[in-house]
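ERR on first pass: missing label on line 2. Operator R.T. fixed the label and resubmitted. Corrected input:
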Amino acid sequence: MKKLFSVLLTICLLLTSAAMAEGTIKIAVAAPMTGDNAEYGIGFSNAAKLMADEWNAKGGVKIGDEAYQVEIVDFDDKSDSDEAQIIADTIVSDPDIWGVIGHFASGICMVAAPTYQEYEYVNISPTSSHADYSGIGDYIFRNNTVIVVETRTGAEIAVNDLGGKNIGILSIDTEWGQSAGNAMEENIAAVGGNFVLRQEVSTDAVDFATEIANFKAADVDVIMVAGMYGTLAPFAVACKNSDYDVRLVGCSNAYTDNLISIAGDAAEGICAPVSFFAGNPDEKTQEYVKAYTDRYGSAPSALTTQAYDSVGILLEAMERAGKLDREAIKDEMYNTEYDGMSGYTTFDEIGDAQKVFTKIMVKDGAFQLAEF
Amino acid sequence: MQTLLGAIINGLALGMAYALIAVGYSMVFGVLRLINFSHGSVYAFGAYMVYFFVSLKVGLFPAILIAIVLSGLLALTIVKLALEPLRKKKSIPIATLITTIGMSFIIQNVLSIDYIFGSEKHGFPSLNLFAPIVIGNITIQSSQIIMLVVAVVLLLVLTYVVQKTKIGLAMRAIQQNSRAANMVGVNVNFVISFTFFIGGACAAIAGALIAGYYGIISPTMGSTIGLKAFAAAVVGGIGMLHGAVVGGLVVGVAECLAAQYLGSNVRDPMAFVILILILIIKPTGFFGKKGITKV
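pass 2 clean. output:
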């Protein structure tokens, strides 16, 4: 009887360990899925799922001798700091989650990141560009450049390509908006442009009459906008309605379908620097764009693609680590050499990536490679 | 001088927007002595209805007309669903007030459900129907002129309704003493419903015009502007229709001047700074009469 029992027990254990081998690892996507920045968050989630499914189709992620299926778990932070903190606490209380892709806005990322650092969860933000973000800890990475690099290309568009004589800046009053605005001021000077006026607005502003009057009075002919499409689109409409002949240069977050659907004709001529452009004729890019478009009905944006690559980067680091150990995964993150859709990615010692930016412009109701 | 004039003109345009909403607040307050905080959301609902019917290609003006009727009906639903039962139970006035705030959140959140309109901003057809007027450096958009004209016409029509018609007489009677009005044969429930309907219709007109001016709508579009319009209504003397218009203009101009000379950060608090100042200096507002409480 005793023998029979021990045999049964062994079989049970074997069965459970077999079930373990068929296990899944979870990756959290934490981003705004509702509210004004929803298009970004939903893009993150879509891209992450596409990447996870590609891995799963190949047999999953191989850690040591075992293969794991990848499951993406969505968390909606509503672009709200309180909500982000709650989500961070929820994520770190789930031991099956091995990495966090998110959050979207820098200010929100910086609220959640200390929690991930404390509990040693690898956190890759596909978008945070605030200078201080990745310095929060060694578990904190970004698959994005700091804002100074991105706005450098923006400033080149404003000064060299559009030939702006007097350049203005419109920035939103968030942490990101202020740091982006400062970076723009620096970069306009760095490329030899003439910065004349900066105006700050709240994120939900729709009335830009005062700002436009001030820009007009200062003879501003090119405005760099440090805001999301929720600010850029109504601002473009307001410029058009008040007959203000000005060129607008956004950031890479301007590259969204919503910008064109909200602003309509007023979006014509808006320029932006992006790390990925779906219209790029490169074969690999087109394969990815097709896979994404077939599944979700629209082409991926640059920020969406950075999220897509972030998942790939994390999974590769997990494979290299060879064990489910948070510290080992983190260490392997620094050895990343990832040839993704948003460029070739490596991380420096504080966890920042580098990107090469392409210039795009809205023309005939669609984003196209910019020709000046 | 140019910038000062520009700021004043921008302020007047913004002020007309506030005035359009404030008139609705005043209308309902005049009869019910009730601050209807769902007004801002009905305004957003009105704008969304215009957006929806324009997307069905019924044309802009028919869309606005349909939106006006639907928003009126929505306001009516609020009365029938939430306020009338409370009135029957003789609940305290503050309960009614809180109910209107609750209704406001319900409408706002229903609008932002993904399968309905979603929580994101949407583009809205422009109301710039004719060429702008350019004087020197200052451009006056046609949508601004339309807002001004409509606000004035609306004010005149509503004043006529309240002062000269039979139902207006009934409204004023209820305002003074609803029980006595009931005894002399005024159908109190009907008059209150009618007033809410008019209030909702005003909100839809404001929604269509303001969304057409900015070219943008979002489910939360009514919350800040609704509070500012409420401040405007109080500044002008709540319950006084012409007071609402003047209050709206004062708040709008003050806001633009503050943004121009003190910085954008001062813009949003400005309406409330004025509200507090007015409440201290002249608690009844510019045109308000001192209320007589009957024992």
